[in-house]
Amino acid sequence: MAERILSPGERRLALFSVIGAISVVGVQIGLFMPLLSLVLEAQGVSPFLIGLNAAFGSSAVALFAPFVPSAVRRMGSARFMLGCFALAVACVLLLRIFDNVWAWFPIRFAFNMAIVGLFIASEAWIGTLADERSRGRIVGLYAACLGGGFALGPALLSVTGSAGWPPFLAGAAIMAAGSLPLFAAWRFAPVMPGRAAFSVLGFLRVAPTLALAVLVFGLIETTAYSLLAVQGMRLGQSEVFATRALSLFAVGAIILQLPIGWLADRINRYMVLILCAAAALAGPLALPHLSAAPIAWLAVIFLWGGLATGLYTVALTIVGERFRGADLVAANAALGMLYGLGAMIGPASGGAAMQLWPGQGLMGALAAAAFLVLATALLRRSWRHAGGRKIP
């Protein structure tokens, strides 16, 4: 079946519907990441088991992502996303009904299956809807709205508290509401016929620079949110200042995505990716030397958070530019899997680096990861120019 050509108004409606739906998912993640840890802490569960429970749930991101393209092909984007929303709502309620850490292992795994399915399908849908003139700005808007959702989650938790049913009912209601925009865009869902020319793992060979950029972004983001405040306090900062710096990291990740997307629509997108990789390297190299200069520290945190997040924004923009149909879904599934792997590797490796090299280890590990992206992007760019080939 041929894909329907949408009018400009239909395209805008579909874009706003999909971005609105996935922004609600961001709220849900921002709510439940701290909520579940707080509930388990109140039950007297050990920190190790709390972390293991979270890591097991996160493993669904990497394990389920390869199966998403075939599910989207069989069910269609809109029906698949609605199924994911339904599964997520059910899991939220089950988390409260079965209020036990061991029951939460399979429930959190299923919840994260639904979440990664929503990300992959929505990003492929957005990639299909965006036109080349404004693709970077549209992806930047998507990233900014998603980041705003992440930031709203903890604010919602401060209203509901962590005890009893209120936070779970609020989360279930918000998640159910997130599915509503999809009904407005149902008839505009893209057709994804046939099979992809490459597997999810095959994406590593097709676009290694983009694959590494997303893996490293997942590593940087989760490590920063997990350990940046601890690092600040170890350098002599107050808890208030350290948490304020972490908030600025998140604010930068929201505010700077639209300018990055705008730049990606104006100049070569791989050059923008290189600039973001350079900034992701420069940030952690500069921060250890700024602990006695609080204003400069906060400014660098803001820029680092925004420009490091640009690795994902630009990679997603390039994927939407290069791939279509089933290939686009497979590429987005690969990005989801790679982000999940980075998120699993980052906090553990960052914590080990902090222990082995107090004061410098965390920032050294983050800088090393960013250097890999920068070196790979520059090397492959030089190969492309030398050989006259288009190498991703």
Task: Write down the overall geometry.
Answer: globular
Number of helices: 16
- How many domains, in number, for the residues? 2
Secondary structure tally: strands: 0
CATH class descriptor name of the largest domain: Mainly Alpha
- Which residues form runs of ≥5 with pLDDT under 50? none
Q: Architecture of the largest domain in CATH?
A: Up-down Bundle
By secondary-structure content and strand pairing, the structural class works out as: mainly alpha
Q: Any idea what the radius of gyration is?
A: 20 Å
Binned, the helix content reads over 70%
The end-to-end span amounts to 31 Å
Structure, briefly:
Helices cover 81% and strands 0% of the residues. The protein is built from 16 helices and no strands.
Task: Draw up the topology in text.
Layout: H1 8-42, H2 47-64, H3 68-75, H4 77-97, H5 101-129, H6 135-160, H7 166-178, H8 180-185, H9 203-206, H10 208-234, H11 239-255, H12 257-264, H13 269-286, H14 294-322, H15 325-356, H16 361-387
Helix pairs in contact: 1-2, 1-5, 1-6, 1-7, 2-5, 2-15, 3-4, 3-15, 4-5, 4-7, 5-14, 5-15, 6-11, 6-12, 6-14, 10-11, 10-14, 10-15, 10-16, 11-14, 12-14, 13-14, 13-16, 14-15, 15-16
